[in-house]
Amino acid sequence: MYQHCPSCRADLEDREIDAVVRRACPACAFVEWGNPTPTAMVLVRCGERCLFIRQPFFPPGHWGLVNGFVERGETAEQAAVREVKEEVGLDVRLATMAGTFSFEPKNLLLIGFVADSDTMAVEQSTEISEWEWVTPDEVESLRLGDSVRAIARVATQ
Questions:
Q1: Residues in the chain where the model's pLDDT stays below 50
Q2: CATH at residue 44
């Protein structure tokens, strides 16, 4: 969140715009809209198993999915396929979009996908601290965030 206008350096002030209080510049037209950053999140399946990962910054004991930011000029679908290749070395085919979720603590728009892989041969990147292929029955016992659990339900139906 800015304190000063990035255009003219004036102090920003709170102003109600479109029924939402936003930081705005009284000297020029700048408004800090606070738009979320689009992020692809992918549950990878291989046969009856689903891939869950841990990243170093996850809360202890929690599992998540391959994820990453959508780059400029890239669709969410392209980002999903790219992130899986970068983080776990798998080539995947997207099966479905599983939903969108707001992660307000980091102002992210999570775009969830389910993808299929022909192999479970994960190539662990430095972004991943641990990974596990689990059965649909085992998913229920994992510590997952709400959005990850929702995507897992779509993938295992």
A1: none
A2: 3.90.79.10
pTM of this structure? 0.88
Same domain? 20 vs 55: no
Long-range contacts of 82-88 (CB under 8 A, 24+ apart): 83/40, 83/42, 84/42, 84/44, 84/115, 84/117, 86/125, 86/127, 87/53, 87/125, 87/127, 87/128, 88/44, 88/51, 88/53, 88/122, 88/123, 88/124, 88/125, 88/128, 88/131
Residues 24 and 96 in one domain: no
Q: Mind listing the pLDDT tens digit for each residue in 25-40?
A: 999 999 999 999 999 9
> Quick one: 18 and 83 in the same domain?
no
